[in-house]
Amino acid sequence: MWDSFHVLKTGDGQQRSAYEVLKESCLFKDLATYNPTLCGTYPLGIHINGSDLDIILEVDHFTIYEQKVKALYHMKKGFSIHSKVIRNRDVLKVNFIENGFDIELFAQNQPVEEQKAYVHMLIEKELLKRDPSIKEDIIQLKEQGYNTEAAFCRVLGLDGDPFEKLIEYGVREEII
Fold first, then answer.
1. Distance separating alpha carbons of residues 9 and 160, to the nearest angstrom
2. What is d(CA 127, CA 23) in angstroms, rounded to the nearest whole number?
3. Please, are residues 116 and 167 in contact by the beta-carbon 8 Å criterion?
4. Looking at residue 6, what is its pLDDT?
5. What is the pLDDT at residue 30?
6. For residue 90, what pLDDT is reported?
7. Domain boundaries, the chain
8. Taking each helix axis from N to C terminus, what angle separates 116-130 and 134-143, rounded to the nearest 10 degrees?
9. Which secondary-structure segment (H or E) carries 94?
10. Concatenated DSSP letters of 108-176
11. What single-letter DSSP state applies at residue 66?
């Protein structure tokens, strides 16, 4: 499994700041039983102003988890908690602000390595490795309002649901 959290330690200024905030928050320690894993733009170095820190978690018992995150983070600025179903899976999303960084905890009853956010990140990481020149195009598209998956699909010329098309592309290109 890729250590996406520690990548921040040697990244640009924003990444190093995010690393320090997450480390000082003890979030990874406090939620260790849920295998917290940083995903998204920060580990890939394609974050823009307004990017949040996306942390995915594997949760079997949502009630216990919800009680824990409420106890830990209810006093944080911008705290909110929402349950929903995404692609036929129960999800519990928690948002709050920690030292100027928007944090989203995204919990599913699925191993983090199998969650779409993690799989997308591995594909995106490999695509950036294969062709570093696309990084600026991705950032520009994100600044225009595209989400990360849609930006990659646009650069790759893939039409349709970007969340599905990116995975199909990753399979076809033997990335995953």
1. 35
2. 28
3. yes
4. 85
5. 97
6. 93
7. 4-111, 117-172
8. 130
9. strand 89-98
10. ESS-GGGSHHHHHHHHHHHHHHH-TTHHHHHHHHHHTT--HHHHHHHHHT--S-HHHHHHHHHHHTT--
11. H
Task: Decide which of 3.40.1390.20, 3.40.50.300, 3.30.460.10, 3.20.20.10 is the CATH code for 4-111.
Answer: 3.30.460.10
Looking at residue 63, the DSSP 8-state letter turns out to be H
> In one letter, which amino acid is 107?
A
Cβ pair 55, 103 in contact under 8 A = yes
Quick check: 158 and 114 in contact, CB under 8 A? no
Closest CA to 55 of 22, 88, 10: 22
Q: Please identify every stretch of the chain with a pLDDT value under 70, giving residue numbers as ranges.
A: none
The partner residues of 102 in beta bridges, in order of sequence, read 97
The answer to whether 122 and 2 have CB atoms below 8 angstroms apart is yes
What whole-number distance in Å separates Cα of residue 103 and Cα of residue 90? 20
Say how far apart CA 120 and CA 86 lie, in whole Å.
Answer: 16
pLDDT per residue over 33-65, tens digit each? 999 999 999 999 999 998 999 999 999 999 999
Considering the entire predicted model, what is its pTM?
Answer: 0.94
Can you read off the two tokens belonging to residue 161?
Answer: 């649901």
